[in-house]
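Supplementary Methods. Inverse-folding protocol.

Structures were first reduced to a discrete structure-token string of length 106. This string, shown here, constituted the complete conditioning input.
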């Protein structure tokens, strides 16, 4: 059995946090941990617990499934669900623009 890549999980959490313009302090407050603990998770110095992972994902507005997608043999369904979740938040005009972009990329 393959070991869980906690470094990759931390990096993905950091990427999501930065993309959403959130600080480590904001996430730490939402999860009720120290800012240094969030830093340690993001930099792979500690292994994130399942409870903390769920709380961090909730604070980031993402899913555990998406964060762990690299751990699956076939991660496509996790990525599909993450894309769908984000698209559902958009208004009709934005959805049409997204569709045109996706079609152009194919």
């Amino acid at each position: 059995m393959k070991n869980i890549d906690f470094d990759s999980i931390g990096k993905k959490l950091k990427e999501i946090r930065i993309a959403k313009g959130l600080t480590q302090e904001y996430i730490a407050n939402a999860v009720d941990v120290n800012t240094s603990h969030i830093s340690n998770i993001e930099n792979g110095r500690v292994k994130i617990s399942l409870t903390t992972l769920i709380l961090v994902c909730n604070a980031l507005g993402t899913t555990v499934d998406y964060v762990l997608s690299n751990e699956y043999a076939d991660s496509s369904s996790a990525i599909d669900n993450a894309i769908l979740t984000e698209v559902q938040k958009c208004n009709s005009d934005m959805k049409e623009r997204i569709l045109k972009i996706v079609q152009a990329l194919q």
